[in-house]
Amino acid sequence: MYVIPLVLFIFPMLAFVIGVLGRALLKKLFIAPVIVFGLSLLAQLLYLHFSFFTWTLIYTALAFSGSIIAHFLLLKYQPSRKVQKTGVIILLGSVLIPALIFTISRPVNAVLMEKKVENHLREEEYSSSDIYSIETFYDGKRNTNRTEPVIAEVVFTDDPGHTYRYIELKKKKQVVQMCEYERSPNFYTNEYTAERPHMVKGCFE
């Protein structure tokens, strides 16, 4: 799942809905904005760039707006318990369904990327016995207009000491080998070397 639709559409909607739910269920104005701020900040630190902090403030403001609107609507109309219950169920559904999709998307994308890398290696005339392992991980910094955010690390049977990274190009929908590799602990380089027998010269930098 792409980050841009999440940041621009789904997250703002969730923040506003959480604000409404916070006021309706917890009877407090500030609890939901604090929760949204904390979750957004945590997401920024774990997955996203520091520039995401602007969006953290926007989501917090939206959550507070939702709380304010819910506060005045509840005071003005004083809906019955049945109406409140129905509204809460609808709002919870609008929060949980996108959240579930977002949660499931990463493991699904990881499995899909693993299959794509397997197919790519078969096209490069590798057999299943040539591949020792394929592991995938999510890298938010790679989620650009050029590449997808899921990276696959491949270890070949005849070269267990080296790991080769693969990534998918967005526009071409093509899996390519990355030049980047770890030469020494925490030191990465793109330099081509014959010491890595499966490294291709036309790798992606």
Automatic annotation (TrEMBL):
Keywords: Membrane, Transmembrane, Transmembrane helix
Protein name: Uncharacterized protein
A UniProt-annotated Pfam family: DUF3139
Domain of life (superkingdom): Bacteria
Transmembrane segments: 6-22, 29-50, 56-75, 87-105
